[in-house]
Every structure is written in C-alpha cells, then in structure tokens.
Amino acid sequence: MPAEPNRRPGTSLGTGVDERSTDRIRLTVPAAAAAVRIARAGAAGLATRAGFSYQEVEQLQLAVGEAAGVLAGREAARGRLELVFDVGPDALRVDLHLLPGAGRPGEDGDAPPGLPALAAAVFDSALDAWRVADDGRRLVLVKHHADADEDDD
C-alpha cells in the first residue's frame, strides 16, 4: 500500500481513519488520589497515538494529573471521577467531572473550594485553554498540536 501524502508516520489511529473526525473515550475511576496515575496514563497514551510531540504529551499529562488530583483530593474521596477524552485532528480535550455523590475529603459533599494557585499556574503553562465549571466539580482542559514550524523549547 503506498504511503499517504502529507502524513507523518505514527500519527494515525488506524488505516482509513478520517482525521477530521473526533474520537471520544470515556473513563471512570474512583475519586481517589491513587487513581490520578490512571488518568495521566490515559491522557499520555491518547496524546501519543494522536501524534502530539513528546513535550506536548508531557504537558498534557502534567495538567491532567493536576486536575485529577484537585478533583479527587489528597485522600480517598467517595464516588467516582469521570474523564471524557475528545481526540480531534488538531487538539485533545479532556473533561474531568466529579460525579454526583462524590464528596471531597472534609467537605461532606459541599462544592469544592477555589482552584489552588499552583493548579492554575500548571494549567496556564501547559494548556491552550482550560475552565472550571459546575461549582468547581468539573475541569475542562484543551491542548492543541503545536504549529509545525514552532520550535519545541
């Protein structure tokens, strides 16, 4: 089979995949600090398969780990954390949501406190866009592929 023009090796999720489409992957994990590794691994694996550079994968992995840690808390929380990964041709969007019934440590189910300054700094440096929603129970992260002519600093 001849190589497809304008295609980098290793960027396709499979032969015949329409790169203009968006794939959606949903992952539900316990809302516990130990599950942060699973969220990070999922983000890294999907970003790598989607053709992100090493630096972009590391940035996304860092941001997803921080977001999952903020939502899950430092100790085991009740309930579940849902991650929805939307893989598009030029970006990866990760929607992390603390599902109803998942209380945060020490809060008895109240809305989470404000986003820690460190988390906001990580998101600002590693992502192209991010937002807090649902009274702090949801974080939406967006990472775009870098332009081809930009240098990986």
Topology:
Blueprint: E1 23-30, H1 36-49, H2 54-72, E2 80-87, E3 91-98, H3 117-126, E4 129-133, E5 138-144
Antiparallel strand pairs: 1-2, 2-3, 3-5, 4-5
Helix pairs in contact: 1-2, 2-3
Quick synopsis:
The protein has three helices and five strands; from the N terminus they run E-H-H-E-E-H-E-E.
Radius of gyration: 17 Å
Structural class: alpha+beta
Poorly predicted regions are 1-19, 104-112
Summarize the helix and strand pattern as letters: EHHEEHEE
Largest sheet, if any? 5 strands, antiparallel
The number of strands is 5
Content of β-strand: 15-25%
- Helical region count? 3
Oligomeric state of the chains in view: single chain
- Strand order across the biggest sheet? 1-2-3-5-4
Please bin the fraction of helical residues.
25-40%
Task: Give the overall shape.
Answer: globular
What average pLDDT do the residues reach? 78
N-to-C span: 36 Å
Description:
The protein has three helices and five strands. The chain is of the alpha+beta class. Helix 1 (36-49) runs antiparallel to helix 2 and helix 2 runs antiparallel to helix 3 (117-126). 28% of the residues lie in helices and 24% in strands. A five-stranded antiparallel beta sheet has the order 1-2-3-5-4, covered by helices on one side. Mean pLDDT is 78; it is low at 1-19 and 104-112. The radius of gyration is 17 Å and the shape is globular.
